[in-house]
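Retry 2 of 3 after timeout on previous attempt. Resubmitting structure tokens to design endpoint.
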């Protein structure tokens, strides 16, 4: 395991790159905010399908709300070079709820604090229609929102973080709260003990873990049942199939898939010669020029299946996830209402057993090149919490 990373450095690196190129790229995203190319069918279907994360019922497709300050001031920016104004972010969330989405994902680290504020504002008057999930665990100063080095899951810090979330999200309870990354300095028993107390107090209803080590899941679950694991999972990154998904199956834990579109790669709009600038993908090995060219074979698979199923590539990528287990729920992120609506259409795409075998074989046949994250971020995943006592 490499030394404990400094998330501030990682995030500020991304932000610096983003800011320096923001003006140029603001006008250069493929389609204007709020619009997307016309999708083939099925699209714009309200999502009525429901799934269970343990005993928590949610729409089969959720919505990720991960934005940092954009420009002009007051605006929002995602990690992939798209800018939107705050009103568009709010409209996107409200439209998603209107279309049947009941799982809204965010985190105090997104901004920090900014995304929770946008979600809280968007959910005014419709809060009770959704399962609201957020995450704590980075070392964020509760007063200033400044991201300090390291992680922080000390019980007193968790309590302060939850109070801040409730305020920003304008609610008296959170439906699902995740530890964003395992704190290598805190026994998981102490973290879950605190979360269990918060459940008793009614401030949170369920808890989960994001990118934890396998033994940490078992230990947490022994203290209080884990409702969901939130890990990266997509056709582009299938690591959870090794140990985490079988463990979720064994223990009856739900699975929420982050970056289900492979950070946009599976949407089909990225060309082999694309150079990422002002974009998190600029520092991710699997999107480096040679790896990107090799990995386009996966996009070819997705596009082929999209043609066969009269769907869009993004819909195929999401439908593939839904087909893996009935308790997997993807939370695609987007800056465009039309993409959000298109993504919901994935819930209507089904694979016959024969198609499932074939599409899995097609995905298996592609050998993805390059790591899914830079080493400093990756080293925070799969971490086991220290033993208690
Ligand atoms: N637990 C964790 O550590 C963690 C880490 C990362 C993310 N997350 C959560 O997971 C959510 C999703 O992850 P993500 O945003 O990193 O990756 P993602 O959902 O795999 O990809 C987002 C990208 O896909 C594009 N996209 C969305 N719908 C599309 C469509 N129909 N066609 C073409 N392109 C489409 C978006 O561009 P447009 O804006 O142009 O649509 C955006 O660039 C986040 O919002 C966050 O809530 C959690």
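Retry 2 succeeded. Sequence:
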């Amino acid at each position: 395991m490499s030394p404990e990373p400094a998330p501030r450095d990682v995030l500020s690196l991304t932000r610096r790159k983003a800011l320096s190129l923001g003006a140029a790229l603001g006008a250069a995203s493929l389609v204007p905010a709020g619009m997307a190319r016309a999708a083939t069918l099925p699209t714009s279907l309200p999502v009525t399908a429901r799934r269970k994360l343990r005993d928590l019922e949610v729409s089969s497709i959720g919505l990720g709300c991960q934005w940092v300050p954009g420009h002009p001031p007051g605006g929002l920016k995602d990690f992939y070079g798209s800018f939107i104004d705050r009103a568009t972010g709010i409209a996107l969330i409200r439209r998603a709820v209107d279309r049947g989405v009941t799982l809204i994902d965010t985190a105090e680290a997104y901004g920090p604090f900014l995304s929770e504020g946008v979600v809280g504002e968007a959910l005014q008057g419709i809060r009770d229609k959704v399962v609201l999930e957020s995450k704590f665990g980075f070392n964020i100063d509760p007063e200033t929102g400044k991201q300090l080095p390291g992680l922080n899951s000390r019980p007193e810090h968790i309590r302060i973080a939850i109070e801040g979330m409730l305020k920003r999200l304008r609610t008296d309870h959170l439906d699902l709260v995740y530890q964003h990354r395992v704190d290598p300095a805190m026994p998981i028993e102490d973290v879950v003990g605190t979360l269990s107390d918060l459940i008793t107090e009614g401030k949170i209803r369920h808890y989960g873990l994001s990118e934890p080590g396998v033994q940490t899941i078992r230990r947490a679950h022994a203290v209080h049942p884990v409702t969901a694991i939130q890990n990266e999972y997509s056709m582009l990154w299938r690591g959870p199939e090794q140990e985490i998904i079988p463990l979720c199956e064994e223990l009856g834990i739900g699975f929420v898939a982050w970056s289900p579109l492979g950070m946009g790669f599976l949407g089909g709009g990225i060309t082999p010669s694309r150079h990422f600038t002002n974009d998190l993908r600029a520092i991710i090995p699997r999107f480096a020029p040679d790896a990107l060219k090799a990995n386009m074979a996966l996009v070819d698979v997705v596009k082929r299946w999209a043609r066969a199923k009269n769907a869009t590539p993004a819909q195929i990528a999401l439908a593939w996830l839904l087909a893996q287990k009935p308790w997997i729920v993807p939370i695609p992120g987007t800056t465009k209402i039309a993409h959000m609506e298109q993504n919901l259409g994935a819930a209507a795409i089904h694979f016959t057993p024969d198609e499932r075998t074939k599409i899995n074989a097609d995905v298996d046949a592609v050998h993805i090149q390059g790591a899914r994250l830079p080493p400093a971020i990756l080293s925070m995943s799969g971490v086991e919490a220290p033993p208690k006592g």
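Attempt log closed. Residues 64-66, 78, 80, 82, 105, 210-211, 230, 258-264, 267, 269, 314, 331-336, 339, 342-343 surround NAP (CB under 6 Å).
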